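ping. complex inputs:
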Amino acid sequence: MSVKPDKAGSQPHGAPGVHTKPLWSVRPASDREAGDAVVSNFLLHWFPAKTYKPSLDWNYSFWLGTASAALLLLVTVSGLPLLFLYVPSVERAYGSVKDIEYVTTFGFWIRAVHRLSAHLMVAVVFLHMVRVFLTGAYKNGRGQGQKREQNWVLGVGLLLLTLLLSFTGYLLPWDQLAYWAITVGTNIASSIPFVGSAIRELLLGGRAIDQATLIRFYVLHVIALPAAIGVIFLYHMWRVRKDGGLARADRATLLPEKAAEAPSKTKTYTLLGVARGTSPAVKASTLERADTTVNSVPDLTRRILIVVLAIFALVSIASVFYHAPLEEPANALVTPNPAKAPWYFLWLQEIVTDTTVKIGSFTINGAFLGGVLLPGALVFLLTLWPWLDKSAPGSAGVWFPKDRRTQNAVFLAFVAGVLVLTFIGTFCRGPYWHLYWPWQAWPELPTRI
Amino acid sequence: MEKRTDSPYPKVDRPILAVVGVLLVISCALFVWSDRKHDWRYYQATFRAQVAEKLGAEKAKLLRPGLQQVWVADLKRADRCMTCHQAALWKGFETAEEPLRTHPAGPLRNHPVEKYGCTSCHGGQGYAVDATEAHGPVEHWEEPLLGKTLGEAYGLVDDKNAAMQMNCNVCHRYDRETKGAEAINLAKKLVTERGCRACHVVNGRGGSIGPDLTNVGEKAAEQYEYGRLSGQKTSFAWHVAHFKDPRALVPETVMPNFHFTTKEAQALSMLVLSWRRAPVPADYRPGTPRTDPQTAAEVETELKMKTGPGAWFVKTGCFVCHSIQALGVKSPAQIGPDLSTAVEDVQSRFGRTLDDFLREPTGTMSVVLSRQIILTPEEKAVAVGKLREAFAEYQKQKAEDAKGKKPAASIGAH
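pong. complex structure:
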């Protein structure tokens, strides 16, 4: 059936749900225009049309989630040129990284941005999790259909994926740092009873770290894990909207409705052509009240822009001065002293050494306890916590509420433990894993000539 | 349209956004600066000016700007030294200051840059394009430039540039003497004179009391025991101290004290550190055996042929295809007929005399005699004479054989 215009010169009608006007206004003049803007605007699909003012506060969320996303964007964008320059082969990898460092224009900077934003992402994602825990933001407040606990589980998944992405990237330069960090990491995996050596073999693609390992880690690093993190990230964002924004926005429902605004406001939606022509009237909640909310575009998006660009600028400036490490070419015969895992796993390495007990000539290896059992139990507890937390819905979206005092204290104790152990592992462990103060010089290490 | 209260955010956030914008501009300026700051840009400009002044603007135009690299696929080396050392292959800058001095021509004659690169001899980090990283010593690069600075740091006796000889000997390890590598030559002489092989395997032969030293240069610095060593903690320093007094470093050792002088100990240390399993192709290493060795019997037979009555045919290469049994020459391949009876055989095969055939050969021999074994008319005459002798000898042997006096095999050994 052919569509004929009703009369000459009139605008053609689009199919139902298809928006014909590509442009939208930041300052809509009518409800109709505002609705159209919502439909044709990508940002307003991501964010609600209106944002509860306190959700925008710098000191509630510290914008750590936005910062994580900005770092994910930065790490992805800086990874793309590296994809073209890096050669995933044991003979060529090291040389290709040296080439990126020395002869690719801005190569050292691109690599530093990639490395720095990857490390920062581990830190910021971890802090984001700490913030969400302390404010009880994984709890369902008073909104309907909220499933915040699901989003918390997704978040735990994103944290693990961030760690895995960073860890798989660690091997790629094929230098001593890479080789021995992966040795330490996969040896811990092999301490799992019965299946440990099989798991190590699966990770390495053999019994030694070689080309098979490199290609496995490469494919995981550039295809499998980024795809997974991308999908889960989008789901994470979608759930935030479905759950009614930040947990703090739930507080808005506690506010009294303004009597002055009677009769109750109605609002007309023309979203996606739903019930076209009948204009369903929806009762506005406190969330829509003019004095408690602002338009997401531009007030929310401006702040997001500030966070994203500030992170770009700071990482970029730091990368001019920070040199991503590249040690000697990987050598299976020479173990660097000390051989350390990546810094975010050093608290585990520290626990492994501290739980390795020597009784005479008999050694109880702590790798299983410190490297598998303990982190496994922590992740398990972390995942289940929203169901174990029995505090009132009213303490969602509040810093340090009274009825969550104990669990926050215990959680903070764990966080402090991880941080202290990470600090010791990073700054206080020297040759032969002996303890040194950070300002204390290590004994001179020998060189060839 | 719902009337909205004024948003407080633009007033607060716009200045912050402006600050962020400034930071972005600063970051752009910074990383452009980080690319422009390299010293090689200065050296290239200086050299261009020098060439223009000395040899004219036309010559200066031949200089290619930007990073310069020698890629030696055989050695897997990408050496960017000439990015700064612009004058290395130019004549006329022999007395200039480094990095703009001409490389001495002598060593380059046998070691062309395109086949050896720079770092395979000089050491240093060929990947790098800044002096500190390229020359070392820097962290995480174990092959610093083997130059005067290093020699002085080691207090090398006599020649402060001797450290580079370590790299000479990576390829020249099978040479008894290498021109220009005096320290290494001294050390090699000491290895023979002091009888190191009594206890150690060196280059695959020697005793088994001490450790095999064939690839001792591969041993990592961390694998030496430095407990009793004072001063520098390097493999080199360890070896020098150990050569001077083995028991001072390793009390339980059975290695005797040879009372080496400092110079000798340094030379020997350079030698042992040069014994590396370096990934160089065999044709970079003179003296590397490339054939399966001949047996004693084969060597004896060849010697006999070379000195016997058939020596002329061995020397010219005829024996590659032809045996001449009567003169004791046995071809390893025996592609052509035995030439003992050539005088008769040529006549019956080609209907021509031997002289005639050699003068204008046909068939395979025309190819061989025009391309591979080129004989002057005089030499051809010699050949004919020798072949006549061979035929006479053949007939004599045949007659003797008929009488059953002598076996044919021993002919030619008279």
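Residues 259-291 of chain A form one domain.
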